[in-house]
Amino acid sequence: MMLTNKMKELRHSDMLSHVSGLGYLPRWSVLLLDVLICLIAFWVSVLIGKGVFEYQELGKDMTLWVQCLSTVGVQIICFWIFHTYSGILRYSTFVDTLKILFSVLLNGAVLLLTNNFILRPIIGQKYFLDTVIIIYILVAFVLLFCLRVGVKTLYETLQHSAGNPKVLIYGTKAAGIAIAKMLRSAGNTPYRPVGFICDPNDKQHFELVGMHVFPLNQKLIDYMESRNIRHVIVSPIKMQEINPAKDLQLLIENNIHILTTPYFTAFDGNSDSDIKRMVRIDSIQIEDLLERPTIKINTENVRNIISKKVVMVTGAAGSIGSELVRQVQKYNPKAIILLEQAESPLHDLKLDLSNKFPNTRFIPIIADVRNRERIEEVFMDFRPDVVYHAAAYKHVPLMESHPNEAVRANVLGTKNMADMAVKYGVERFVMISTDKAVNPTNIMGTSKRIAEIYVQSLFKKLQKENPNCTKFITTRFGNVLGSNGSVIPYFKKQIAAGGPVTVTHPDIIRYFMTIPEACCLVMEASTLGNGGEIFVFDMGRPVKILDLAKNMIRLAGYVPGKEIPITFTGLRPGEKLYEELLNQKETTIPTDNEKIMVARVREFPFDEVSKNIDQLIELTAHNKPFMTVQKMKEIVPEYISKNSVYEQLDK
Predict the structure, then answer these.
(1) Which of 41, 178, 413, 448 has the smallest C-beta neighbourhood within 10 Å, fewest atoms?
(2) Taking Cα atoms as reference points, which of 133, 144, 140, 186 lies closest to residue 24?
């Protein structure tokens, strides 16, 4: 019996889904329906006229059918003038109502003018009774209006009964209302709106478009659980008004699936493609919960150093490099050199860029920054004016196992690029560094710190000889969200696989920044620097990785620890519980951009630095990791290994 009832429910749901998914009537069908309604309206008007105004006294020679065809014929012309049939009936709006009204009024005006000022002087009497024309205007408008309201109401009723998950909309302004209307009227949408959410201090106990508005509090959570409402759509305007990390936390902690929509323009309901575009609904991203304030930069300053210049980006196919390329192209460079050693990613990047930015010249170059001769060939051929050096090895555990490779890529690669920049007269050289270079506890961070020391000491030496030398600028920032191999994509894969989500330590914290934000600040820092500076970015508040994992699980619609388990694996080699942006002995000074500061760091004489780095690079050829790491510790005395086999070198 239960199986039979279940099958009936499924057939009922399938039938409703089929009906709600029907295509649109062609325009000629809409016009035909309107014409039929006008015929009915005319005969209703005649009946009212005969009963009330003795319509038969108008004359024996005039037939009602000729009058009917004349009225409907003029009406068709009016429909054509206002394109009343071009809209989709189930998406009818106020604009469609006005079109109907104007077309009927125009028809009545034409008939009245013709009747009184053309026909009456010619044949000596009126062809129509004026009162009947007026009655026709009223009846035709009401019937045409009712057709559209009826179709719209029927369709929304079918959609409402189709069994889609119920959803509340957070936001009671125009954007929230528009989302509700679209979900109620558009076909093939996955959610059914049943109410709105307002802030706790907003007006309560009122309705919008026939749905109740609830304050955001614990009572709402209880109500949602009782009604099996597990989804909330946050309007794009509301996302800008609230602090998602705080204001959405109550919903997230109760495993409510948070959704949002992109910005959209006015909804007119007449274009199928517009409807599909506007009802796109996405899950809210973890980036929205990290309290990242909007970053503003001086675009004019960036344009001044990039416009009409040849710009080189190393590591161009990487997460940071590819975003730098996309941001650089906005400022009208003469050409962008995409320097990358990985063939396939570079090929894919070139195809994507050429498709999206056909007016920008992109030059893909296969080259390895560790190959000095090849790098000199590139500089000699293209003579770049600005260099963004993003090529590096970055994964801490891997580099802990391969210190020689870390030195070759991050130290030798930077030295080759910097030396060629000086030799071929580059105006600005911007090096991408990391917060792991501060009080380093691992190979990767130390190799980046040595690279920082080299470019800074090189600039100080050159500046004494030539004030107009290449300006070397270093930028430091923490983890970037969504970069290749970073924690967020890794967590997403683990959640998609059903868990467990692995966290190294329950107390580990990290600073985070989105890739566009980081690159935006890199672009700004490149304009602020006069050479030799190490810029550090305001990374906001640090994030506890355990909390990050829990929120990601909740955003995916699961319960942390129950549906998706979390396990702790222990700190990885070279990893520490927290990252620093500045050495304890370092201080910062502000810049014109409140998000960017200049670090005052210890300076080193170039001759000593150059000698030590040459020795370090030479050691990598012997494939003796401990000797290499020992030399790194000599160059960077604050480098103390942690959770690593190289801890014995610190004793």
Answers:
(1) 178
(2) 186
Q: What is the dihedral of CA 587, 591, 596, 598, to 10 degrees?
A: -30
- Of 27-36, 412-421, 457-466, give the range with the top mean pLDDT: 412-421
The residues, any chain, with a CB within 8 Å of residue 332's CB and separated by 6 or more, are 303, 306, 307, 308
**Strand runs labelled E in 531-590:** 534-537, 543-544, 566-568, 587-590
* Distances in whole angstroms, Cα of residue 29 to Cα of each of 144, 278, 352: 14, 26, 44
| Rounded distance between C-alpha atoms, residue 268 and residue 92, angstroms | 8
Q: Does domain 163-284 have CATH number 3.30.70.380?
A: no
Of 160 and 515, more confident: 515
pLDDT for 538? 77
Domain boundaries of the chain, sorted by first residue: 24-158, 163-284, 299-650
Determine the pLDDT at residue 479. Answer: 76
DSSP label of 638: T
Q: How many Å apart are CA 620 and CA 615, to the nearest integer? A: 9
**Is pLDDT above 70 for 38?**
yes
Virtual CA dihedral for 568, 572, 576, 580, nearest 10 degrees? -110
What is the C-alpha to C-alpha distance for residues 571 and 518, in angstroms, rounded to an integer? 26
* Kind of pairing between the strands at 207-208 and 211-215: antiparallel
Question: At what angle are helices 27-53 and 130-160 packed, to 10 degrees?
Answer: 130
Distance of CA 429 to the CA centre of its chain: 31
* Alpha-helical runs (H) found in 536-624: 545-555, 606-620
Tokens of 632: 């790194």
DSSP element (H, E) containing 352? helix 343-356
Topology agreement, domain 163-284 and domain 299-650: yes
CATH architecture of 299-650: 3-Layer(aba) Sandwich (3.40)
Calpha distance 581→243 (Å, rounded): 25
